Inverse folding.
């Protein structure tokens, strides 16, 4: 057994660990390229970005990849197969990995900045007390780039990676263009959903829902990336039964009063399990929790 196959087998063993196997398999392809193996590599990257499988792409989303990408995908597959042996095995490992991932339901992730005393904004809704500079911003921009508002991305010359989230849900107070300088499409790179009990006017590309819980349950049955719960507190309190992951950017500030992390939800403990915490020189910590349910 050669080194590439050893790496591939190692990747297979690790296939439950996030995208690590893909990196290892890709590394093996990069170290030991054969023919046009990079076309298949590109295909794997497309699948990674879309967190989907070839069959899903071909059957449910034929136009999603675009014809050019689709031909690369098909061509890549035959090139892998015709080489036989290890590259094909690598492809199969990647395929199984994505197939398994696509079977995993998408998560609703409440990713939010919060003060030490549990507030996400001032009493008037102003979140500007949270620092936007410091070493934690590297994680915010790189890892959570999909959750950076479109106009901020544009100002910083960034492009949404579309590797974490493909949809965002906001409460009306968070979305309200009147309190956001007229901005009516803050996350233009995502499928934007706004919750309101009222008949609000929103642009065509923004979806209004009167039943955010049902909407989230519906989205979770569809294939796609995770759903970004932007806030605010009231909507988060309503959606708590469907929140799968909490990512708290805890800032070294005490507000005293403000908009609570989960609005005015009544006392009803819901257990979360600590996944990891990263601390930064800026004093910010980013803690991730998974719902215990
Ligand atoms: N720190 C952060 O990272 C962060 C992130 C996001 C937001 N924020 C801040 O949070 C503030 C807003 O928070 P908030 O708690 O006041 O309001 P919110 O959750 O953004 O919006 C509340 C509104 O959403 C609608 N809504 C909520 N639950 C609903 C349900 N079950 N069905 C239908 N509609 C529902 C209602 O709109 P209608 O009144 O139209 O019916 C409700 O008044 C903003 O000022 C923003 O700055 C901070």
């Amino acid at each position: 057994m050669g080194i590439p196959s050893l790496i591939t087998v190692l990747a297979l063993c690790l296939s439950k660990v996030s995208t690590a196997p893909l990196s290892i398999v890709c590394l093996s392809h990069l170290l030991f390229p054969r023919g046009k193996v990079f076309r298949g590599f590109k295909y794997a990257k497309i699948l990674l970005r879309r967190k989907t499988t070839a069959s899903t792409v071909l059957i449910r989303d034929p136009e999603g990849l675009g014809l050019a990408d689709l031909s690369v995908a098909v061509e890549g597959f035959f090139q892998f197969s015709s080489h036989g042996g290890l590259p094909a095995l690598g492809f199969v490992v990647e395929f199984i990995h994505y197939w398994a991932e696509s079977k995993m339901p998408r998560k609703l992730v409440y990713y939010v900045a919060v003060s030490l005393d549990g507030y996400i904004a001032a009493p008037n809704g102003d979140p500007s007390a949270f620092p936007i500079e410091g070493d934690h911003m590297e994680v915010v921009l790189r890892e959570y780039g999909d959750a950076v508002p479109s106009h901020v991305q544009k100002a910083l010359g960034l492009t949404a990676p579309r590797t974490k989230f493909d949809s965002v849900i906001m409460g009306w107070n968070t979305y309200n263009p009147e309190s956001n300088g007229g901005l009516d499409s803050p996350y233009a790179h995502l499928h934007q959903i706004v919750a309101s009990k009222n008949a609000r006017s929103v642009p065509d590309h923004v979806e209004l829902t009167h039943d955010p819980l049902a909407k989230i349950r519906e989205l979770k049955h569809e294939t796609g990336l995770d759903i970004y719960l932007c806030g605010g507190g009231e909507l988060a309190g309503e959606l708590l039964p469907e929140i799968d992951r909490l990512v708290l950017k805890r800032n070294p500030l005490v507000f005293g009063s403000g908009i609570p992390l989960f609005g005015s939800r009544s006392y009803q403990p819901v257990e979360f399990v600590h996944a990891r915490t990263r601390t930064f020189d800026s004093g910010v910590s980013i803690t991730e929790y998974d719902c215990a349910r």
